[in-house]
């Protein structure tokens, strides 16, 4: 048996509800995108089973909220240590179900685990205040923070561990119980994480995990249940809009981490070495399948030619293949639809006059077999109106446009409904900071191609979402402020 087969045979395959793994049938296939072959099959929850998971979370809520913050923190800390101890299992599981190269999966395991450590530290720093009312006398204002209550979390397929821990970590730290529904394409990493929570000593029902091919009806049943108090979602803006509508019924607290269309602005003062290295990171992390992926390169006309040829050289030299193989830097896309979408965007840009500087096509046959691979692609002279400038590409394609004035660069960058992140490269600090302030996004990578950090507030504006994950802000999303008006008179 190969290491991969042996690992997959050990992974849980059913629903985790109330501290028990169910004995449901497992009809739902999970596929390896690098080979196109089935990895395993898992349980397919019905709406009733979704509500049963909420029953378990509701039953556990009062005791968990009353558990000492230090005890909640210790469980999260232990879970952090267990994930780090099992980095190899987590990384291989993730690569098999999602496709990213093993080195990147290891990076995500460390990043994902860090949310557990960070929120174990935040759990013991939930504070209120006591103050004298402005009118004085015996009037006092007392505030305290309490857990929101049972939470429903829905996560995407592109970061199977980190998107789960970024929600479960703060929810548990705050004293909330949770039901999580991972993406049906990458459920195994989250299911493996449930075994870690069990082993770390999390009481039954505090975290529950359901997998389903009926995301819409299962989620609707949970969200319309009056006992639920919060929905936290990471995924597409389209689904986010639907969930916000559903959540309005119960006036639920919501956190939405949605789509992006990140501009990467290269200012006239940019150091090209730094800008090209940052561009490769911002574009190629996770094969471009990241909400933070640079989607449009907006480069000053004085640097456009050299930037384009250097980026094409770097991206064209990247090794594409099965992420379990040594030396592979670029894995497959998640499925065949994703490949078709990327191809259509490239063709549309070419039809409007773009030049293909490297790549431009899918990779199939031979060593690529039935995998869903696309060659890293750089497009020069992309015309305004091209679809790739307005839609989330979610693949290894870098469209480049040039500009002449700073006002033009800012207008191009802000010309999108999205506002998650922008990248700015420039050595003139005043100019770079001024441009950063003018960009309509929740985050900026200033001379940096990666910003994700558990200690920093992650999130977007406009159609990219509501709320922040990570940092001190992250736990606030799971807390309500209660005010007690006190009279000493
Ligand atoms: P998606 O289609 O919106 O799916 C995300 C999750 O929602 C999956 O678990 C999916 O389940 C579930 N879902 C789908 N339809 C649903 C419905 N009607 N009701 C309830 N749940 C439903 O997005 P994706 O393709 O997985 O992920 C890519 C998107 O996520 C991109 O737009 C990306 O930018 C965004 N993203 C954002 C961030 C961020 O922090 N801002 C981070 C990562 C990704 P199934 O798997 O069963 O369809």
Structure description:
By secondary structure, this protein is α/β, with parallel strands linked by helices. The chain has two domains: 277 residues, Aldehyde Dehydrogenase, Chain A, domain 1, CATH 3.40.605; 193 residues, Aldehyde Dehydrogenase, Chain A, domain 2, CATH 3.40.309.10. It is 40% helix and 21% strand. It is built from 16 helices and 24 strands. α4 runs antiparallel to α7 and α10 packs across α11. The model has no long low-confidence stretch (mean pLDDT 97). Bound molecules: NADP nicotinamide-adenine-dinucleotide phosphate. The site of NADP nicotinamide-adenine-dinucleotide phosphate (NAP) has 28 residues, from α8 and α9.
Q: For the terminal residues, how far apart are their CA atoms?
A: 76 Å
Mean pLDDT, rounded to whole units?
A: 97
CATH class group of the largest domain: Alpha Beta
Q: How much helix is in the residues?
A: 40-55%
Report low-confidence residues grouped into runs of 5 or more. Answer: none
Describe the largest sheet: 7 strands, mixed
Topology, number of strands? 24
Protein structure class: alpha/beta
Tell me the number of helical segments per DSSP (H or I, 4 or more residues long).
16
The CATH homology group name of the largest domain: Aldehyde Dehydrogenase, Chain A, domain 1
CATH arch. level architecture of the largest domain = 3-Layer(aba) Sandwich
């Amino acid at each position: 048996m190969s290491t991969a087969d042996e690992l997959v045979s050990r992974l849980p395959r059913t629903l985790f509800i109330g501290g028990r793994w169910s004995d449901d049938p497992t009809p739902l296939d999970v596929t390896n995108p690098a080979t196109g072959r089935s990895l395993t099959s898992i349980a397919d929850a019905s709406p009733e089973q979704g509500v049963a998971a909420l029953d378990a979370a509701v039953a556990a809520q009062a005791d968990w909220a009353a558990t000492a913050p230090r005890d909640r923190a210790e469980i999260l800390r232990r879970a952090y240590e267990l994930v780090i101890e099992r980095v190899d299992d987590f990384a291989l599981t993730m690569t098999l179900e999602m496709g990213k190269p093993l080195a990147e999966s290891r990076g995500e395991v460390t990043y994902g685990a860090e949310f557990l450590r960070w929120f174990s530290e935040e759990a013991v720093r939930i504070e209120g205040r006591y103050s004298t009312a402005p009118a004085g006398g015996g009037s006092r204002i007392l505030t305290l923070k309490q857990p929101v209550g049972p939470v429903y979390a829905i996560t995407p397929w592109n970061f199977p561990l980190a998107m789960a821990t970024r929600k479960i970590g703060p929810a548990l730290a705050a004293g909330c119980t949770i039901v999580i529904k991972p993406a049906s394409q990458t459920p195994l990493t989250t299911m493996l994480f449930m075994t870690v929570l069990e082993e770390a000593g999390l009481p039954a029902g505090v975290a529950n995990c359901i997998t389903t091919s009926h995301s819409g009806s299962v989620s609707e049943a949970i969200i319309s249940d009056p006992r639920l108090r919060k929905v936290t979602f990471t995924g597409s803006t389209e689904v986010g809009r639907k969930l916000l509508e559903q959540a309005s019924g119960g006036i639920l607290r919501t956190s939405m981490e949605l789509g992006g269309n990140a501009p990467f602005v290269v200012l006239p003062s940019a150091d090209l070495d730094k800008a090209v290295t940052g561009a490769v990171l911002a574009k190629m992390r996770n094969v471009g399948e990241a909400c933070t992926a640079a989607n449009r390169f907006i480069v000053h006309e004085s640097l456009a030619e050299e930037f384009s040829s250097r980026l094409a050289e770097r991206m064209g030299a990247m090794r594409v293949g099965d992420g379990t193989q040594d030396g592979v830097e670029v894995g497959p896309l998640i499925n065949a639809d994703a490949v078709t979408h990327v191809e259509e965007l490239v063709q549309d840009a070419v039809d409007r006059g773009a030049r293909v500087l490297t790549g431009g096509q899918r990779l199939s046959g031979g060593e690529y077999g039935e995998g869903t691979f696309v060659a890293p692609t750089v497009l020069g002279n992309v015309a305004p109106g091209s679809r790739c400038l307005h839609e989330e590409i979610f693949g290894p394609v870098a469209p480049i446009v040039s500009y002449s004035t700073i006002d033009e660069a800012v207008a191009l960058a802000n010309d999108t409904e999205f506002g998650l992140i922008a990248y700015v490269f420039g050595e003139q600090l005043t100019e770079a900071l001024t441009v950063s302030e003018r960009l309509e996004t929740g985050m900026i990578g200033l001379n940096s191609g990666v910003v994700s950090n558990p200690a920093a507030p992650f999130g977007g504006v406009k159609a990219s979402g509501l709320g922040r994950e990570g940092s001190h802000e992250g736990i606030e999303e799971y807390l309500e402020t209660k005010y007690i008006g006190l009279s000493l008179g």
